[in-house]
TrEMBL record:
It is a multi-pass membrane protein. Its EC number is 3.4.24.-. Homohexamer. SMART domains: AAA. ATP binds at G232, P233, P234, G235, T236, G237, K238, T239. Acts as a processive, ATP-dependent zinc metallopeptidase for both cytoplasmic and membrane proteins. Plays a role in the quality control of integral membrane proteins. This is ATP-dependent zinc metalloprotease FtsH. GO terms for molecular function: metallopeptidase activity. It comes from Flavobacterium azizsancarii. The gene is ftsH.
Length: 641
């Protein structure tokens, strides 16, 4: 997310430059004051020369400082006496000002008697003993303290993460670092700026309604939600969406990152959380947006071997307390973003906290075209630029990547002094961004795309053909998380699973790999999670549910969980061999079956893969146009009704 200027003027701040300048001045002053022989300083007089001047009656007055040093002022007669020119040229250059000489005196008592005698003889007009503070001495004795304070300020600034430039964090280290965006001046974002993400927008629309019109819900006794979690890969527009909610509802927006809470000092995180909620409540209705909430929200107490996470846990606990604490009518809604919902502490997800999860996925081809449209709007481009074409060139790109492409294209065009950004500039920009993404392993080559499409189409085709496989609702080749594609099934709520149902499901799971074999006659590593799933299923059939003839009606399942502590298996060596063989036979059997089904439907498999490559996501309707209606589903409906 963008780190804008901080529009919160209430904080007391000392510019770091002020501190640095002050320290510098002190050093300059010290070196100046202790620097000794400066040209404009009066010359030092020896005691004998002083006696000569005094004897001649050429001294106007003498001021003795600290009983140690005297300033000597000459009178007009002395300045006219050419003999003095030998003593120093200096006194002729500033005849009226003085002091003309300085003098180190020995014993102050003797010196005083000498001066009194001269005054008595009319040879000296006046003298005076004074006490003077020697600033340079004081400063030198304070120097170590000044240096220590300076170093301390420097360290504090570093530790409170003052990279953002604003100083003075020592004074508000326990204050929240949230940036406040005012709804009237700073937030221009609305849902119009968020392209695609239809589902997410629809879900979050409700929160906008709550913020705009809370009474409508509370009057009916309903509770306003306190938080929602935006889950999705980086750069997919989570921050943008949260900001758009604030823009739509016209409420202030507090934005910060989870890591902003974390500090090395005990108690700072918790105190920042408190401060944040206090500020938000003062401005309510308001939205708090916490990016990367996993920095504080990781599950507590799991890997607590080091015990070093106490501070983070305190922070998390404070966050939970605050979310529980504010009443239903405080109208502060917390939106948090993460790309790892799985690592979050389950307590965060409990009712009344982040009980809503909104998925913000990578855009498919149609959504990418829409995102291009948003980001091309402010760019001077040639007529008739084909958005769909650009969308096609950018598989696997996030919204942020696309924003990057548009910006990069404008820069490239500017380099060639063009008046409008053209298609080639965009292609060059895409190439450049891909270069960056390739390093992050995020990019999919056309070959890979085809392989993924065939794989997913394989799952879809096999499950469509099998009576007991769960009905398919959506297939996509937009990568999400670790997997490169996904087929979504509507899981039936079965309490008892029969052997034929399990076998059909295993067959559908093997459909991906089987399709690769049938189409390319080679298999890939892309089916790891399929293999894992099918192996787990087969093992369960054989060793847990007693569904295998060779093993028979035995289960090696231990519901007490005791066996986890046993190192030995609950069956003999021979049985283990049989089990392994049976599992492998089961899986191979279903693999062969999937291959057979796909051989028979090869044209449809390819047709489906082509549509997938084209659209990246297909739904049940598309499958029906290829395969025709699934007859089993009718049976299913009959059974249900
Ligand atoms: N759906 C979208 N529509 C328009 N622009 C988008 C979209 N998604 C991302 N962008 C662009 O990408 C930029 C970065 O997105 P944003 O910061 O919201 O992503 P994020 O999901 O919060 O990422 P992260 O997890 O890295 O914080 C946005 O400012 C916007 O320009
Ligand atoms: Zn698969």
């Amino acid at each position: 997310m963008a780190k804008d200027n901080n529009p919160n003027p209430s904080k007391f701040k000392i510019s770091p430059w002020l501190i640095y300048t002050a320290i510098l001045l002190v050093f300059l002053f010290i070196s100046f004051a202790t620097g000794g022989s400066n040209l404009s300083e009066p010359a030092q007089l020896t005691s004998s020369k002083f006696n000569v001047l005094l004897e001649k009656g050429q001294i106007e007055k003498v001021i003795v400082y600290n009983k140690a040093e005297a300033e000597v002022y000459l009178n007009a007669a002395a300045l006219k006496d050419p003999a003095n020119k030998k003593v120093a040229n200096d006194i002729f250059e500033r005849p009226n000002k003085g002091p003309h000489y300085t003098l180190e005196i020995g014993n102050d008592q003797i010196f005083q008697t000498k001066l009194e005698k001269a005054v008595g003889e009319g040879k000296l007009k006046d003298f005076n003993f004074l006490q003077k503070n020697n600033w340079s001495d004081i400063l030198i004795s304070l120097l170590p303290i000044i240096i220590i304070i300076g170093v301390w300020i420097f360290i504090m600034r570093k530790m409170s993460g003052g990279a953002g430039g604003s100083g003075g964090q020592i004074f508000n280290i326990g204050k929240s670092k949230a940036k406040l965006f005012d709804e009237k001046t700073d937030i221009k974002t609305t849902f119009k700026d968020v392209a695609g993400l239809e589902g997410a927008k629809e879900e979050i629309q409700e929160i906008v309604e709550f913020l705009k019109n809370p009474e409508k819900y509370t009057n009916l006794g309903g509770k306003i939600p306190k938080g929602a979690l935006l889950v999705g890969p980086p750069g997919t527009g989570k921050t943008l969406l949260a900001k758009a909610v604030a823009g739509e509802a016209q409420v202030p927006f507090f934005s910060l990152s989870g890591s902003d809470f974390v500090e090395m000092f005990v108690g700072v995180g918790a105190s920042r959380v408190r401060d944040l909620f206090k500020q938000a409540k003062e401005k309510s209705p308001a939205i708090i947006f916490i990016d990367e909430i996993d920095a504080v929200g990781r599950a507590r107490g799991k890997s607590n071997m080091s015990g070093g996470n106490d501070e983070r846990e305190n922070t998390l606990n404070q966050l939970l307390t605050e979310m529980d604490g504010f009443g239903t009518n405080s109208n502060v809604i917390v939106l948090a973003a993460t790309n790892r919902a799985d690592v979050l502490d389950k307590a965060l997800m409990r009712a009344g906290r982040f009980d809503r999860q909104i998925f913000v996925d990578l855009p498919d081809i149609r959504e990418r075209a829409e995102i291009f449209k948003v980001h091309l709007a402010p760019i001077k481009k040639v007529e008739g630029l084909d958005l769909d074409f650009l969308a096609k060139q950018t598989p696997g790109f996030s919204g942020a990547d696309i924003a990057n492409v548009c910006n990069e294209a404008a820069l490239i065009a500017a380099r060639y002094n063009k008046t409008a950004v053209d298609r080639q500039d965009f292609l060059d920009a895409v190439d450049r961004i891909i270069g960056g993404l390739e390093k992050k392993n995020k990019i999919i080559t056309p070959d890979e795309k085809r392989a993924i499409a065939i794989h997913e189409a394989g799952h879809a085709t096999v499950s469509w053909m099998l009576e007991h496989a769960a009905p398919l609702i959506k297939v996509t080749i937009v990568p999400r998380g670790q997997s490169l594609g996904a087929a979504w099934y509507l899981p039936e709520e079965r309490q008892i699973v029969r052997t034929d149902q399990m076998l059909d499901e295993m067959c559908a799971t093997m459909g991906g790999r089987a399709a690769e074999k049938v189409t390319f006659d080679r298999i890939s590593t892309g089916a790891l999670s399929d293999l894992e799933k099918v192996t787990r299923q087969a093992r369960a059939m054989v060793t847990i549910y007693g569904l295998n003839e060779k093993i028979g009606n035995v289960t090696y399942y231990d519901s007490t969980g005791q066996s986890e502590y046993n190192f030995s298996k609950p069956y003999s060596e021979e049985t283990a061999k049989v089990i392994d063989k049976e599992i492998s036979d089961l899986i191979e059997g279903q693999y062969e079956r999937a291959i057979k089904i796909l051989e028979e439907n090869k044209d449809k498999l390819n047709q489906l893969a082509d549509i997938l490559i084209e659209k990246e996501v297909i739904f049940k309707d598309d499958l029906e146009t290829i395969f025709g209606k699934r007859t089993f589903d009718k049976n299913l409906e009959e059974v249900v009704s």
